[in-house]
Amino acid sequence: MAITCAGFLLLLVATGFASRDDVKLTNRYGQVGLWNTHSAKTLNRYGLQTNFWGSYTAHDDFLVNFWDRDGDPGLSDPIDPIPGFNAGEFNISVGYGFTDFFDLAVMVPVYLDKIAKDSNEDIITDNTVKGGAGDLEVSMKFQYPPNQESDFFKMAYYGAMSFPTGNTTQGRFPRHNYYYAWPSEDTTYIYSNDGNVEVDMKMLWTWDFRELSEEFPVLFHFNYGLRWNTNPDLEHVFMLNAGLDIRPRPWVNVFLDYSAQPSFSSVERRDVVLPTGEERQLGLLDDPMRLSPGIAFLTPGGFNFSAGAQISVANEDKQFLFYGREDALFETAVEPKAKFVASIGWNGIVFEEEEPRVGKDNPEVYSWPRAESITYGQSLRNARLYGGSADIDGEFSFVHRDSVPNAGVREYSVVFTPRDTTNYAAAFNDVSVTIENVETSVTAWPRARSITYGQSLNEAELRGGRADVDGEFFFVEGDTKPDAGTASHVVRFVPEDTVNYTISNRDIEVEVAKARPEVSQWPETDTITEGASLADVSLSSGRASVAGSFAFAEPEKEPSEGIESHEMIFTPDDTDNYETVRGSASVTVEREAPRAQVIQRGALILEGVNFELGSADLTRESYSVLDRVVESLRDWPEIELRVEGHTDATGSDSLNRRLSYERAKAVVDYFISQGIQGSRLSAVGKGPDEPIASNATADGRAENRRVELHRID
């Protein structure tokens, strides 16, 4: 758990300190590769790596029987129940790339074992952690031939020597099958150090399929060789490793690592006799054989973290007897069934590499060629190079000529290969290549389902469209809400692979039906009198979902007295996009009431309208006369009046004119107070200027003091 947490912490920190793009995953031995399998690739010149690799197991099926001998060399009944155990291994390594084709690494393993007391506390007296450092191993990797031009296939030789460190009896369980001394009664098994030098020799092969296609990020590694033990009592073993390395992203590796260590005895199918007297024939499945799935994260800052499992596929039915120390005897399986494995490390270039010196053996390229454009699906072989020239004879070609690039304008490496390759080196440069899209073929454009005004084009379902590649048909202006009618709109086909295929457009017809407005309330009607038409009915309170007007279907009809239902029509203002809606409303028709007497044209003297002496205050008897005028004005709304006030000649003219105006104004104000519109009325004061009788007599002066009405409509 601590390794996992530390790994994720370093992963997060490292992402902010990018120093190079080519971060490599290193294995338990300090070399480039997977956990148990080596890659033929190297750290490159001046490349430095450090790595901490660890495994842990407490698998119940590993420990089969346990004898606590307590100094007795013989076998008694095994302890029951079998105690639990814990086993850990930790490899610490450092590696360095002296050249682009030669790496050197040093690795030290540490082994720790522990037997749990559990319910056997009275029997198992020693449950302390046993273990220590294992053999120090120095390894080297040499690519051959050096400076290989092909990045697709790499080959390298691997050699390692392990030197004895620590105590041969450290630990409780043997760590390698090449530490097995096939039994005799006086044999003691080796645990973490055999006390002798061991030699490991392997051939390494790596295929990098990314060099053939960017769409296939897969590497495959294969190792085979021999582990030679200089102790004549111990086993020699064959070494066989394979690894599948998938890199879906530059920063993540998903891998499966296979490792097998068949001993010479297993290959020869040798018969052995165990200390218990049991005879057994050894086979290939009696030696370690593992599958290790895992995932690794690589950061631009050089840090790498991996985690996964190591699963044994060796024979689970056969066990071996191991004499661990004087106080205990163990019967175990070949290996624990499963281990948890994790690693954390860093690698990077520690020195800036000097610029290569330009010598006379480098050709001078006067002009690099241009490349003809190609179409997606064609390889770079189809992009003809033309126009290049150099100072010596040779040929221009793409480095990765079998690569099939995506559409766009991209840079690819071109190599100039001299005809005289013995005396001249190759020259490299990037050349732009235009990769054109493949024109999409739409075999059938879709039809659009009709919609209603107010719906967007996105709601007009497109049906029946077909093309030669996967993709989607949709309206370019899908949010548009078109007017009613039939019109053309642009439909676009967008392939799923827009990088390599073109987008196509075409107009298709869409039928948009008129929408039906919703009338939430038909209008209320006023009462009309007999003889009036429906056009005279006042309508109010009608409501609909869109703007428009309400009207009777037969406005000229004159309904009979009573209450009748008549058809109505709601006509939207936007008749291009909305339908008319029909409904009905009830109309009440009353018998026409008699109208008041009409006011005739000419001067009408209001007899009986009088004022208090010397003022404009109407007398009480005047209101009955004025009320009859009000009734006439109500029944005849088209009449407009001018009210004139007159006085006799008694007193000053200015005083009489003002008094006559005030009296006329008092009459107008009364009419207005009774609901007559002021716009139909006006007041004028004539004073004594227009007498209708002599001012010399009292009767004449009484006649001259009057109010007259004059129609002005």
Detailed description of the structure:
The chain is mainly beta and 713 residues long. It has five domains: 2-347, monomeric porin ompg (Porin, Beta Barrel), CATH 2.40.160.40; 365-436, no CATH class; 442-513, no CATH class; 519-590, no CATH class; 604-711, 60s Ribosomal Protein L30, Chain: A (2-Layer Sandwich), CATH 3.30.1330. 8% of the residues lie in helices and 41% in strands. The protein contains five helices and 46 strands. The strands form 13 sheets. Strands 1-3-4-6-7-8-9-10-11-14-15-18 form a twelve-stranded antiparallel β-barrel. It has a four-stranded mixed β-sheet with strand order 21-26-25-24, with no helix packed on it. A four-stranded mixed β-sheet has the order 29-34-33-32, with no helix packed on it. It is elongated and about 170 Å long. The two termini are 106 Å apart. Residues 1-21 and 182-192 have low confidence and may be disordered. Residues 598-713 form the OmpA-like domain. It comes from Chitinivibrio alkaliphilus ACht1.
